[in-house]
Amino acid sequence: MASQEDNDYLPEETQGYKLSQPKQSLTEYENMDANDESLQRYKKSLGLGGGTNLSDPNDPRVCIIQSLTMESPGRPPVTIDLSQPGSENSLKDKPFKIKEGAKFTMVATFRVQHEILSGLQYVQVVKRKGIKVSKDSEMLGSYAPNTDKQPLYTKRFQEEDAPSGVFARGHYNALSVFIDDDKKQHLQFEWSFDIAKDW
Question: What would the pLDDT profile of 33-58 be if each residue is shown by its tens digit?
Answer without folding.
Answer: 667 777 777 766 666 667 888 999 99
